[in-house]
Design goal:
Number of strands: 5
Helix content: 10-25%
Structural class: alpha/beta
Order of helices and strands: HHEEHEHEE
Distance between the termini: 48 Å
Largest sheet: 5 strands, mixed
Strand content: 15-25%
């Protein structure tokens, strides 16, 4: 079973059991030591997680903003896809989320629609499989929930990594 599990990404494994506790990677909790490789990466620094090879390393576009209505609930991010146009860049304030609000499925669809990238003040996942530019302050294999759609795109300004 270990050999079969090693072939899976951490995202699907974490989706199978949402009961795991999230802590910082510096936690001394003995129950979490066995999940050390799955812990949330602690950093509040915005970092480039993926740049498409054909892009020339530059992400340019009209910033479209989304404020999550509740931490860890990324339905507003999914809903935003319908309002984005080719060339847009989605900027998301997660409100302190500890679970991912975007990953490979989202960026694949965003790329199909011509979106240039996503900037997230919070966690994303599936970094090795992302399709468009993706910046984030954190990485986690755990996906959030989809319960509250929020107020929509460009309803309010958002703060992302300390910049409004």
């Amino acid at each position: 079973i270990i050999k079969r599990l090693q072939k899976l990404g951490t995202g699907p494994l974490c989706d199978a059991d949402k009961g795991h506790k999230l802590t910082s990677s510096t936690s001394d909790d003995p129950d979490l030591k066995k999940y050390k490789g799955l812990n949330l990466m602690d950093t509040d620094v915005m970092k480039l997680r993926h740049a498409p090879k054909q892009s020339g390393g530059v992400m340019i576009g009209v910033a479209r903003t989304v404020q999550l209505p509740r931490p860890n609930d990324f339905l507003a991010v999914l809903s935003a896809l319908t309002d984005l146009s080719a060339g847009d860049v989605l900027v998301v304030n997660t409100g302190g989320s500890t679970r991912a609000v975007a990953g490979s499925l989202f960026t694949t669809e965003a790329t199909r629609r011509g979106v240039n990238g996503i900037v997230v003040d919070g966690p994303i996942r599936d970094v090795a499989e992302l399709e468009c530019f993706a910046y984030s302050t954190k990485i986690t294999p755990y996906a959030g929930t989809v319960q509250h759609v929020g107020e929509g795109v460009d309803v309010s300004s958002v703060q992302c990594a300390g910049v409004t």
